[in-house]
Amino acid sequence: MSNAYFENQPSPSEIKERMKGYSSWLEIDLDNLGYNLDQISKHVGVTVMAVVKNNAYGHGIIPVTAYLESKGVEWCMVAKLYEAQKIREAGLKLNILNMDVLFTETQYESVVKNGITQCVYTKEDAEKLAKAAEKLGKDAEVFIKVDTGLNRIGVRHSEAADFIEYVHKLKGVAVKGIFSTFQQNTEDKSMLAKLLAVDEELKKRSINIPIRSMSSTDATFHNPDGWLDLVRPGMSLYGVYPEKKDLSASVDLKQALSFKARIEYVKDVSRGEGVTYWGKYVAPKDMMIGTIHAGFYDGIPREMANVGRILVDGQYKSSLGSVSLNHYLVDLDGVDAEKGTVVEIIGRKGENTLSKTAETAGWMVYSLLNHLHMNTPRVYYKNGEPIALIDFTS
User: Fold this and answer.
1) Do 261 and 199 share a structural domain?
2) Beta strand pairing call for 378-382 and 117-120
3) CA 288, 292, 295, 299 torsion: positive or negative?
4) Could you give the percent of the chain with pLDDT greater than 90?
5) CA pair distance 49, 258, nearest whole angstrom
């Protein structure tokens, strides 16, 4: 992989040595990430803007974006300006659409200086970007967000053509795209029609915008009319079907992430003894129980009390008692385990996938991914070997 980010990582043997000291960590299979990108690209046949906001949905924004760039991805989207800045600091060159709101002169200048494409929907923002562009002697690139009915942000569709023409005429500002977002109701055709009407009106005014986009993951799966020039997949890129209905889409996905940990302590518990706070589990017999040094600090939902499924020695075993901030207990009867034994809390297949874990906890998969702690180490694999890591523990 000819990417400077990966070339500057520790060797596989060095990564494996550091992993020996981890009490819990995430593993991200980049081959699966690439597989999902290929499947989505083949499905839609248009440009894919990779949504890497919120730390790439918990997967780690810089390694994920670096890998996607090496796969030829030309566009990514972030939710926060600091995410875009970190991507640039890492030396990555792909186009970045920044959805974050800007408040200060320094922020406007940072966007222009770093070649970050800014989401714009007010004259104030457009004019401040033009001012920054003039100061720096460099064009500001923008995507115009059009509100077609979601009513979060965006210039109202009925005012959009006039607004876009105004921005288009600003010196030093280049309008690279217009975009909107569905309400995830595939039967509602009006929102797409509103964006297309804006584009048609602009063409009548001899304004040709290079990129039009409407589709996030839901429309990427279910609404071919909304693919236009560019789609913006989020969770699906990481191998997750956000809803059960999405399993019917003709897009095969492979989950990229797994969550592993080591057993901290093994002990015998006698019949009738309570386990964890409030005795949330009472041993029905003499048992062997393991304590895992991971908990809801790392992102394990507290609702997994007594219902988690943890892979130990090739068998799925039940979690026992409440989920503590830093502790998670598991039934070790019938398995071979000791201090240091690696267990799988979230797997890529079987009884403890992201989707099944979220369903058991009563969470959205989206929430589960975005509760994975930033400081939990992340190890990145390609062809079965670790090639990169994020480690705040040393």
Assistant:
1) no
2) unpaired
3) negative
4) 93
5) 24
Same domain, 219 and 77: yes
For residue 144, the model assigns a pLDDT of: 98
Number of domains observed in the structure of the chain: 2
- Domain with residue 278: its CATH number is 2.40.37.10
1 is a domain residue: no
Q: What element of type H or E holds 202?
A: helix 190-204
pLDDT, position 95: 98
pLDDT at 39: 98
Q: How far is CA 355 from CA 30, 106, 133, 211, 310, in A?
A: 19, 41, 45, 33, 14
CA distance 173 to 112: 10
Residue 213 to residue 124: CA distance in whole angstroms: 23
User: 171 with 309, same domain?
Assistant: no
| pLDDT tens figures, 232-274 | 999 999 999 998 889 888 899 999 999 999 999 999 999 999 9
* Partner residues linked to 75 by β-bridges: 49, 95
Do 109 and 217 lie in one domain? The reply is yes
Which residue segment(s) compose the domain that 312 sits in? 257-376
Are 344 and 232 part of one and the same domain?
Answer: no
pTM across the whole model: 0.95
Other CB atoms closer than 10 Å to residue 69's CB: what's the count? 20
Instruction: Verify that 189 and 280 share a domain, yes or no.
Output: no
pLDDT tens across 199-212, in order? 999 999 999 999 99
Secondary structure class of 156 (helix, strand, coil): strand
On whether both 210 and 261 belong to a single domain, the answer is no
Query: Are 147 and 227 in the same domain?
Result: yes
**331-341 average pLDDT score:** 97
Q: Which residues are catalytic?
A: 53, 277
Pick from 82-91, 273-282, 312-321, 333-342: least confident: 273-282
| CA-CA-CA-CA torsion sign (128, 134, 138, 142) | positive
d(C-alpha 61, C-alpha 85), whole Å? 11
